[in-house]
């Protein structure tokens, strides 16, 4: 049975804030990013609580969507029209054999890294070119999102390999 793991989604949705606090810290990439983005300390001052709350809400969307990128069994469910209750025998045989296959931190991290590199990078680069931003700006933001998605995907996919606090034996 393929289900969305809402605890994994919730845990992964915190990652963009955590990695952002580190990645955009002035001693890491924050100072360079602000310069490349055309921001100043003055412009950055103000009420950030709304930004943080909305970031978590949007991160919930990202984490929810990552399930469909990294949990391949959703593809099998999609092939039968998404109705698991009325699935045929071949679907149930497939799920019996492969239902927990490829459920690990590493697998989720790999597919999420590929999403960052092959999807997020082009999107950010296209926007940056039209906004006349530098490649440094592009690479700082792409690096952040690729790292963030990699960790989020690892958490979501790896969570399936846990039963409480014990690793589930996989094929």
Description of the molecule:
This protein is an all-alpha fold. The chain has one domain (9-71, 100-167). Helices cover 71% and strands 2% of the residues. Strands 1-2 form a two-stranded antiparallel sheet. Strand 1 (162-163) and strand 2 form a beta hairpin. The protein is elongated and about 60 Å long.
Features:
transmembrane helix, single chain, mainly alpha, two-stranded antiparallel sheet, transmembrane, 171 residues, DUF1761 domain-containing protein, 71% helix, disordered C terminus, 9 helices
Structure summary:
The chain contains 9 helices and 2 strands.
Number of domains: 1
Number of helices: 9
Shape: elongated
Strand order of the largest sheet: 1-2
**How many strands?**
2
Low-confidence stretches: 164-171
Helix content: over 70%
Keywords: Membrane, Transmembrane, Transmembrane helix
Transmembrane segments: 6-25, 46-70, 109-130, 142-162
InterPro entries: DUF1761 (IPR013879)
Protein name: DUF1761 domain-containing protein
